[in-house]
Amino acid sequence: MDQVLAEHFRNETEQPSLVLGCEQPVTGYHETNFSMAYSSHISWQNATSPVPMEAYPSLAFDSLFDNRGNRRNESVLDRVREEAASLDRRISTADRGRLDEYLTSVREVEKRAQAARAHKATADERAWNRSTPAPTMKRPDDGLPEDIREHMRLMCDIIAIGFQTDKTRVATLLMCRDISGLFYPFLGVRDAHHGASHHDRSDGYHKITHYYVGQYAYLAERLAGMAEGDRTVLDNSCLLFTSSMWSGSAHDSSKVPLLLAGALGGTLETGRVLDYVGKDDADRKLCSLYLGILDRMGVNQEMFGDADTRLAGL
After folding, report:
1. Mapping DSSP to helix (H, G, I), strand (E, B) and coil, where does residue 71 land?
2. pTM for the complete prediction?
3. Which DSSP symbol is given to 309?
């Protein structure tokens, strides 16, 4: 869905979409004979071609602000200092506050991206010396932030300023892949994510799930705090949060839980719980939800994936 929207907005924003991740993709085939590409990507050009995912926060930030070559050594705000000063003299006190909030937000994220860039530069040098591609190394040797908490928050913040600046209107964030090897010592959980998911009723896995939902809530709060006309960026957006599995212990992916936040400019009614568990499979297709969201974003398609009807009740 994201790439359909990216194509729709291609001529209206500088970057059609942000495709981000917090864990490097894996290659090869699963023991059940499906390509591991399907476990490592959520953004696809078509059924067999994943969109390359950016896992390095510094490169994700650079892509938004056209940071190339020597431009990476200067602040983004230095390039617009004169324009910002001129605008500041011509706007109201209230708008000055918004402008300052916006510039402060960009600078704060930029400083964290610059710190991440230094780690990546060290990793690139290490990779050169070892004649080994950096992405194939383990964290943090690969240059990704060692603390997954900072990695996820920084990616969320990059998405937020991407929407706030209207550099892009479409973004995906794969916080962890299927069969994830991420660890969460800060949660007091000893098992890696995939191992913990096989005990999905355990206290440890509940802590992991709560942590991930917290990242989603963080991004929603960031967007809710950004004014956009007489609404907020969240009011004009739709954030979809889901997983690929209903039960890790049963390997059941026949149904998935998901959350929607944001009203898409008032076209989505929020504050509801919609239960489709008892519905026939034909009446609860995920692609039917996607069709409904596409409609509200100005993209009318007769069919998407395996669905040709809109999700009832949306």
Report:
1. helix
2. 0.92
3. S
Task: Report d(CA 289, CA 241) in Å as an integer.
Answer: 13
- Give strand pairing partners of 80: none
In a 3-state reduction of DSSP, which class is residue 228? strand
Task: Measure the CA dihedral 21/173/47/289, to 10°.
Answer: 160
How many residues belong to the chain? 314
pLDDT digits (tens, 9 = 90+) for 195-248: 999 998 899 999 999 999 999 999 999 999 999 989 999 999 999 999 988 888
234, 223 contact by CB (below 8 A): yes
Q: How are beta strands 231-232 and 227-228 bridged, if at all?
A: antiparallel
Per the CB < 8 A criterion, the answer to whether 243 and 196 are in contact is no
Q: At what angle do helices 93-130 and 57-65 cross, to 10 degrees?
A: 130
- Measured distance between the N- and C-terminal CA atoms of the chain, rounded to whole angstroms: 17
> Does some domain include residue 49?
yes
Q: Tell me, yes or no, whether 180 lies in a domain.
A: yes
The distance of Cα 286 from the centroid of its chain, to the nearest Å, equals 19
In which element (H, E) is residue 261 found? strand 258-261
Evaluate whether residue 306 is within a structural domain: no
Q: Which of 148, 163, 157 is CA-nearest to residue 264? A: 163
CB 228 within 8 A of CB 237: no
The per-residue pLDDT for range 91-104, each reduced to its tens digit, is 787 778 778 888 88
Domain residues for 35?
A: 2-72+109-296
Phi/psi at 92 (5° precision): -75, 170
On whether the CB atoms of residues 261 and 239 are closer than 8 A, the answer is yes
Q: Is residue 63 part of a domain?
A: yes
Number of domains the chain contains = 1
CA angle 99, 103, 262 (to 5 degrees): 75
Residue identified by tokens 């209206």 is: 12
Distance CA 125, CA 31 (A): 35
